[in-house]
Amino acid sequence: MSNAETKVSAKQAYEKLKTKRSTYIDRGVKCAKVTIPHLFPEESANEGTKFSTPYQSIGARGVNNLASKLILALFPPNEHFFRLGLTPELKAQLGDNMDKVAEIDQRLMQIEKQIVNYIEENQVRVTVQEAIKQLIIAGNALIFLPPDKDGAKLYDLKNYTVKRDGLGTVHTIVTQDKLIKSTLPEDVQSLVQDFKEDAEVTIYTHVQLVGENYEAFQEIDGKIIPQSEQTYPKDKSPYIPLRMTKQDGEDYGRSFVEEYLGDLTSLEKLSKALVIMASISARVLYLVNPNGVTRPKNLQNAEDGEFVSGRKDDVTALQLDKYPDLQVTKTTCDTIEQRLSFAFLLSSVVQRNADRVTAEEIRTVASELEDTLGGVYSILSQELQLPLVRRLMTKLMQLGTVAQLPDGFVEPTITTGMEALGRGHDFNKFTTFMGIVGQLPDAMQYMKIGSWVTAIATSLGIDTTGMIKTDEEIQQEMQQAQEQQMVAQMAVKGMGNNGNSGEL
After folding, report:
1. Is 456 helix (H, G, I), strand (E, B) or coil?
2. If DSSP codes are grouped into helix, strand and coil, which group holds residue 383?
């Protein structure tokens, strides 16, 4: 029996797993209706669906603001969000060879730059930002990094299923892609000959953990697509399932909006009532006594300043005495908006979203996220940043963009919370240490200045290639200086001897 024949049908696996997903989708749709409806619509929605606009805007503002702050803290524009460091085993082998450690650290910093440049140049950041919006509203999202193509693809919760074990490790992922037959490669079109050229076909991708690797294959119309079978290391899979919060025993996460759905729903109803009542109150209607002498038609057709026969008491303006009720409604709305503004960081001390954001602003945002979201930022750093770095590093090594690194040579580290600046916070540590060392008598003679200069430059993200002299170059220059000094001394001595002989 062939390997393909032993595989479980991807469609059957998808249909089996989606039953546990339905409740999460329903909650996501409810959360989207009071924030940004088109980001997570009902499954029946299509390109022609007209979405209703919420009567309040704080939900949409809150989602956009929180997503911007999360992307700022997770992927700071001016700093690396991760650090490649040597493994403890390799550090032990190098021992006290600080020069070699500094050289390797500088090379790793160059790889960091290449990974960050790839994220910026291939719209990975854009995909991640959309994924974060999905997390805020629906609580779940899936990012796919194609092994043979650039860029990234986002799956919302309606287009993938996931199964985790008791420890939260992803065991199975099944995605669905709905495509037009004519857009598929010819070898794939041959598998769905019964479909028309403009017909919509569904491709299922099945990913399952087997041992320490993920085994994946694609299926269309019950047939496995040729050459679609792939194997990925467990920690370097191109499929990155995300969740906003972690719930033990659940395959999917819960959204941030769901935690404040009561306030958002109440605000939506009150805002709708306030708008409707304000619109009714703004109408001007006149009541005319049917038994009076004043004729409404004469009043309607009269010009400004014209004299009309009638009696003043026959005409009264209709006014709704609802102002006290409107005030109560407005006060309640203001109270709820204040609570939601605090929850979505709309009252943040950092409001600027510029291309160049200072390190202090990033630290402030990271601190706010930790305090307000209760560790959500830390979860994303471990389930988003770390897998993303590992996958991109593997991909760039396969493409030959970066140097091949042996397994177990380096390990990426994601710093979170107040230290979410990657290498940037190391500079402060170096500065503090050098300040203390400088106060100690004769302490500088024990320091290797060259290694420290390289380390400080690395903490600032500066490539020192060709800028700092090596030990060999310094020794060569010192030797040349000594030789020049000896030649000068011999010349002076020779001139002195010649002078003495002349006097004799």
Report:
1. helix
2. helix
